[in-house]
Amino acid sequence: MTRKISMLAPDWWDYTTLDDKILNDAAKLTAEDMLQMSRKGFTVKFYDTLEDFYLAEALEYINAWKQATADNPVGICGPIGPTEQLPLVARLVNELELNLKNCHFWGMDEWFIDGREAPAKHPLSFEKADREMCFNKIISKLRMPDKNLHFPKADTAKYVKSWEAVRCAVMQGGQGDIKHWAFNDPVKREGRYTDNPPTPKEYRQLSTRVVDLHPVTIMQNARTSGGGVVTGIPTKAITVGPLQTWKAEKVSIWHAGTHDNPFGMRLTTLMIGKKIPDSSVPMSLLADHPNVQFNFYRPAIGSCSVEMH
């Protein structure tokens, strides 16, 4: 049976190409239904306040780094989006006097501009944001060595190799409107993927790479980071891949309601909870990861009922 054409971008795959039953079932979920989607390997957690939400996210950094020793270095892979946890991480490190010399951090993505990664001085640079919002705020004597900070580059070899030598305790992420983690977007509807998107197995074999961004992702980043100026957003990025994601012992996704909407949060919860992986909804592929946690700011869950504005 031929899959539907996207309502959002006809030349691309995305969640609007799914069977209507999946979409309708997702829209009907209540917050309590979402909690019930927890199963072995998939945990759904709610936080009643933003303070508790972002503190819990920051503590994942601390709890991962506390495991690190000289013989067993440990790292965390973190997103830009959300970012509110980053200054909290720095404050916690400083207050606890946690020495990060055996700790590691992976940035999960970066913009790709003019044939290379965005320079760290670029206003939109994710590396710039990580350093300014977190790592530069840590007391000098406690900071991790700069060689332990791994940011993706256009030449991905060094970044990919870093995943082989260090244990990643947690990969954090947010969920975009297109239902991605990092910039693992749906692919274009062309060539061998004209009639069907990549199988989950095919998509999970992708490593860190340069990608074309789905138009929805470009529009979203203009909204959340660029004041709506779509023409100021790059159309390509470098993203950590599923191959690296499956090296993380835990994948922890943080839904504050800023980057996706009530329907999107319900859709991926349903697809992971019921094990319905489909690469047109990249986040749903985490249904096959052994340890995934979805964290929600409960007031942002909202509903999918009609509300005119």
Describe what you observe in this structure:
By secondary structure, the chain is an alpha/beta fold. The protein has helices at residues 20-27, 31-35, 50-65, 85-96, 126-133, 157-165, 200-204, 215-225, 242-245, 262-273, 298-301; strands spanning 42-47, 74-78, 103-107, 109-113, 116-117, 149-150, 167-173, 209-212, 236-239, 251-255, 292-297. It has one domain: 3-Layer(aba) Sandwich (Rossmann fold), CATH 3.40.50.1360. It has eleven helices and eleven strands. It has a seven-stranded parallel β-sheet, sandwiched between helices. A hairpin with a 2-residue loop joins strand 4 and strand 5. The longest helix is centred in the first third of the chain and has 16 residues, at 50-65. The protein is globular, with a radius of gyration of 19 Å.
Task: Describe the structure in brief.
This protein has a single domain (15-20, 42-300), classed as Rossmann fold.
List low-confidence stretches: none
Tell the overall outline.
globular
Total domain count: 1
The number of distinct helices, counting runs of at least 4 residues, comes to: 11
Q: Span between N and C termini?
A: 38 Å
Helix/strand-derived category reads alpha/beta
* Rounded Rg: 19 Å
Largest sheet: 7 strands, parallel
Helix content: 25-40%
**CATH fold topology:** Rossmann fold
Main features:
11 helices; Rossmann fold; alpha/beta
Q: Helices, strands, pairings?
A:
Blueprint: H1 20-27, H2 31-35, E1 42-47, H3 50-65, E2 74-78, H4 85-96, E3 103-107, E4 109-113, E5 116-117, H5 126-133, E6 149-150, H6 157-165, E7 167-173, H7 200-204, E8 209-212, H8 215-225, E9 236-239, H9 242-245, E10 251-255, H10 262-273, E11 292-297, H11 298-301
Parallel strand pairs: 1-11, 2-3, 2-7, 3-6, 7-10, 10-11
Antiparallel strand pairs: 4-5, 4-9, 8-9
Helix pairs in contact: 1-10, 3-4
